[in-house]
Design a protein that fits this description.
The chain has helices at residues 3-13, 33-38, 56-65, 85-96, and strands at 21-24, 43-48, 69-74. The chain has 98 residues and is of the alpha/beta class. The longest helix is centred in the last third of the chain and has 12 residues, at 85-96.
Length: 98
């Protein structure tokens, strides 16, 4: 989540054992866009539509540049998910079950 999601991308970039990435609310300014685009495994980015720290539009664009990227926005959720926390679980579980 947030900074931790950006850290997960850094780990994945240097570790071929990482075959999937699920990033929750990563601030775009902390993401290595080239590493994200180069990731060949399934990628899911989840963020709130009202998140000003991890804006949906920027994250959707980054996800679209990844080979197998997908972006999901949670309505009315901000960066701290006072609303939408259960949606993260539902979206993540559906994606992981594939």
């Amino acid at each position: 989540y947030s900074f931790g999601a950006a850290t997960a991308l850094r780990v994945a970039r240097n570790n071929p054992a990482v075959r999937r990435l699920l990033l929750v609310a990563p601030p775009p300014s902390l993401l290595d866009a080239a590493a994200l685009a180069a990731f060949r495994g399934p990628l899911l980015i989840i963020a709130g539509q009202a998140d000003t720290i991890a804006p949906s539009a920027a994250l959707a664009e980054l996800a679209s540049k990844a080979a197998r990227g997908r972006f999901e926005a949670i309505a009315d959720a901000d960066h701290f998910f006072a609303v939408g926390l259960n949606e993260i679980s539902r979206i993540a579980a559906d994606w992981l079950d594939r």
